[in-house]
Structures are given as structure tokens and as C-alpha cells.
Amino acid sequence: MRMFAARCLCILSLSSPALGAGFGFYEQSAAATALGGAFVARGNSISGLFYNPACAGKIEADELSLGGTLVIPSTSYTAPAGDSPFDGERNVFFPPNAYYGRRIDDRIAFGIGFFVPYGLSTEWSPDWSGRYLSIKADIRSYYVNPVMAYKLNDRVVVAAGINYVRSSLGFQRKIDLSPLSPAFGGIELPDAGLTFDASGDGLGFNGGVLIDASPEITVGASYRSQVDVKYSGAIDFSVPATGYGQVVDTALNVLFPDGDASTAMELPQQLNFGVGYHGVQGWNFDFAFWWTGWSSIDRIALNLENHSTAPTQAIQGSPIERDYDNSYSIRFGAEHTLNEKWRLRAGYLWDKSPVPDKTVDPLLPDANRHSIQLGAGFTFPDDRYSADFAYMAVFFSDRSTSSNLDRFNGTYTTTAHLLAMSFSYRFE
């Protein structure tokens, strides 16, 4: 029953492959994506609000930015015996983002952002070897982030805001009923199915500062708090006909009653630092260091309202260990102003995985990764309109585990390609 519970609960390790370490997704602006996310010390666009809310205090006019990122990931699994790789389903995602900034007076500005920093999903074939761990998993965490920015003087801007989070979880997998076979006279039992869907809310806060340290150097820092989300939903079991009559089918269904279920999760805090240098005419160079408190994802329990049977009692009484580590990433970006209309960008980042070997699994086959980015920005003849585009290639290190808690060991290979776009309008 412990193994059964662990397999049910590993939904809560969430989804992958995400593009930031763990299950983070930090490509929340096309311009920032093209610079590798080294946008913490930038203040020239409201689209930087996700990276540093103090950017709202730098805008010269009211501004609206709308965008999204097309994500095309691929993951494969190879068993320890060296069998042919098993490919995950090739799904495509498009997390959106939106920002609005309004200058109230010379010192005070308001901004609001909408983004999805935790998202994406995994999907595998219903008959693959890991079907008892996962067939499909999905998470969406929608953030609404209003902020107020205040210009202390000509060189320093500070900002603070609130994060309202609406998050949803979804999971499907098979259940191996063969351990129950002796209780039914040794007959061969088919796989059952499990589906879990839940949603919840949470509140957090964030803040940031931007400093013009000199005419050539800007410095930025931002913090986003941990958000505690309590999820409530339902767990549904499906037991197919066994072919041994209604008595057997009914007895099996009684063991797996549908019902309400709940859980909780602490979405991690994040602390970012950035430096920008613009002392070379026509060029801007940016560096950022991101720290994420993934250790908040430690042990997670699924609480079932109806846990009167042995299988459901096992789920109810067995929290699953995730034991994530805190992690960090290093990011670089360069931008060249080609002329009054065009800006060319490039970036690079390296991201450390927070997932230890023992909890690497089909839901989160996470690994250290690095990526390269290219992009461009264009200002239309009517200077109020602009567009930004970026391409990002993410290369994950092959991740092998021989100590998985569910004894599902092997090697995962993941890559991803992203296309980001943003369109902005300045109300002048």
C-alpha cells in the first residue's frame, strides 16, 4: 500500500518539462526572454514587471504590453536495461502575459501584471511502462500582481505589490490491481484508472528596487514571497469490467470510491539581483543572478474525504517525500541598438535543478540546463507601437537516477524550443 500511495501522491511533484528549474516558467516577456532573463536591472518597459516591479516607476508614459510564449518541449525515457527510448507526447503550450503601467505623477506610478510563472504539463502514452506513475499531469498558476512604485530621487526607484494566485492541478495515471489478485482467487485483473483535479488560491507579496549607480551602470534587486495554496477538488477512480462477472466488478469498485480531495503547496520564494552596463554607445549588457527557495517543496499529503477502504487509507496516511533543494541560475544578455527602429538581442543562462535523484520521476524529470536566446525589438513608424520577438533553445543535461523512491529508475532526455512575442502601446 505504501507504493500505491506514493504513486498516487507523486502528482504533487507537478509537471514538466518546465523551462526554469523545478516547475518554474520564467519567460514572461519577449524582450526579457531574448536577454536570457537578465532583466532585473532594466527599467525601460512595463513588461519587466515580473522581473522587477520597480520598472513601473521608470516608465515615462502609460503603457500596455500583451504577449505570450509558444513552448514546444520533448522528453524521452530510457530504462536502465538500455531499451529503446520511450518518447513522451509532444504537446504545445502558450502561456500568456499582460502588463499595464500608469504614471500618476512625477514620483508615483502604478503597474499591474498577469503571468503564469508555474505551468506546463507532461503526457505519456496510456500503455507505457511508467503508466502507474503518470499518464498526464498539469499545473497552471495564474498570478495577478498590482504594484505601486515610488521614485525616491532621480536615481532610486522602489516598488511593492501583492500577488493573488489562482492555481489548478490535474493528474491521470493507471493503478496496478495485480496485488489484489490473491483476494479474488488469483484471477488476472485489469489496470484501473485514477484522475485528480483540484484548484486553489493564495496571496503573497513582492518588492523591488532600481538604482542608477552611475551614468553607465544600473543595479536592480527584486523579491517575490512564497505563496501558500490550498487546493480542493475531487479524486475519481475508474475500474473497467474484469470479465469475471458483476460480483467481482462491484467488489473492486467498492475499494475505490470517488470523493472530494484536498492538498496544499508552498510555491517558492525568489530573490533576484541584476546589473546593467550601458557605457558603450549603442550597446547594453546585462547580468542577473536568481535564487529560488525550492526547499518549500518538501513533503506533501493528499487528504481524501472518503478514505474508508484499504487503498484510500494508504493514500490518506502516506505523505510523499519531494525534498527539493534551493537552486539558482546565472543569466547574461546583450542588446544592440541598430537604428531608431531596430534592437537586436542575445542571451544565455545556466539553471541548476532543485530535484534530487531520489525524486526524479516521469512527472518531473528535471535536470540542470543551459539555453541560448536570440531576439529583436521593432518600433513602428508611429512610435507609440512596438513589438518584440525571441527564440530560445533549452538544452537539459541527461538525467539518470538509480535511487528513485518508486524504484522507477532510468535516464531522461529533454529539450525545448520557445518562441516569444510581445506587443506594446504607449499612451502618449
Helical coverage, percent range: under 10%
Q: What is the third-level CATH name, the topology?
A: Porin
Q: Major sheet: order of its strands?
A: 1-3-4-6-7-8-9-12-13-17-18-19-20-22
Please count the helical segments.
Answer: 4
By CATH, the superfamily comes out as: Outer membrane protein transport protein (OMPP1/FadL/TodX)
Strand content: over 45%
Averaging pLDDT over every residue, what do you get?
Answer: 89
Number of domains: 1
Radius of gyration computed on alpha carbons: 24 Å
Structural class comes to mainly beta
CATH architecture: Beta Barrel
Span of the ends, CA to CA: 65 Å
Low-confidence stretches: 1-17
Tertiary shape:
elongated
- Biggest β-sheet strands, sense, barrel: 14 strands, antiparallel, barrel
> How would you spell out the order of helices and strands?
HHEEEEEEEEEEHEEEEEHEEEEEEE
Quantity of strands, as a count: 22
Q: Class in CATH?
A: Mainly Beta
Provide a descriptive summary of the structure in words.
With 428 residues, the protein is mainly β. It has a single domain, classed as Outer membrane protein transport protein (OMPP1/FadL/TodX) (Porin, Beta Barrel). The protein has four helices and 22 strands. The strands form two sheets. It has a 14-stranded antiparallel β-barrel with strand order 1-3-4-6-7-8-9-12-13-17-18-19-20-22. Strands 14-16 form a two-stranded antiparallel ribbon. Residues 1-17 have low confidence and may be disordered.
Keywords:
428 residues, mainly beta, Porin, 14-stranded antiparallel β-barrel, two-stranded antiparallel ribbon, 22 strands, 7% helix, elongated
